[in-house]
Design brief:
209 residues; 13 strands; 13-stranded mixed beta sheet; 14% helix; mainly beta
């Protein structure tokens, strides 16, 4: 399964990224300079290039996509889908402007059935989950479930506050700030969309290994 790292124009990660597990490194044009600053050498840069004036970048594939009806993040995912990438780790989706963060979530959900998209920042990993999922190495980590906008009949196993067929709604009951009491957490739901956040820190504040 082809896997890509994608850096977009939010807050870049502080942690060092192991690029050896990726088949390619992509970034939006707005994130290109940030990629260089954190030691990433992109293979491909995609966007409308309102942030980069010179398109002649040595040893980098440049894909100019001027269509203003789509964000550069959307354009990157479209390219990755066409090139048959099935797993995408996204960095830089959070921080800075919060409307961009919400927009990034909305963009990602359109590709949910085509690619496994995981967002990473300095605090957590989060993703739109399948209807049934097993998350490993979770004990003592904070787990938050967030309906987008609804998730019906949510069940969980391995969480301190179990969910037994509960309906979650963005305007009502949500499932944030829970934590795992087992090494493996199982989550399932029947209908809707569910965003799962897994903290990179243990309940006592220590960084998870």
């Amino acid at each position: 399964m082809k896997k890509a790292l994608l850096l977009i124009n939010g807050l870049p990660p502080k942690e060092k990224i192991n690029i050896e597990k990726f088949d390619a490194v992509y970034c939006t044009d707005g994130a290109y300079q940030k990629a260089l600053e954190i030691g990433l050498k992109p293979d491909v840069v995609v966007g409308d290039f309102d942030s980069i004036q010179d398109l002649n970048i040595p040893d980098v594939e440049v894909l100019h996509r001027p269509d203003q009806d789509f964000t550069d993040f959307d354009k990157c995912l479209a390219v990755l889908k066409k090139r048959d990438f099935k797993s995408i780790d996204v960095y830089g989706a959070t921080g800075l402007e919060h409307d961009h963060f919400l927009g990034n979530l909305t963009t990602a959900i359109h590709y949910k059935n085509d690619m496994r998209i995981s967002f990473h920042d300095d605090f957590s990993v989060f993703f739109f989950t399948e209807k049934n999922i097993l998350i490993k190495n979770t004990k003592n980590k904070m787990i938050s479930l967030y309906p987008f906008p609804t998730a019906e009949k949510v069940h969980s196993k391995g969480l301190f506050y179990p969910l037994n067929g509960m309906d979650l709604d963005i305007t009502g009951r949500i499932g944030t700030r829970n934590h795992a009491i087992e090494d493996n957490v199982e989550i399932s739901y029947d209908k809707g969309e569910l965003l799962v956040f897994v903290s990179k820190y243990l309940k006592n504040g220590e960084k998870s290994k």
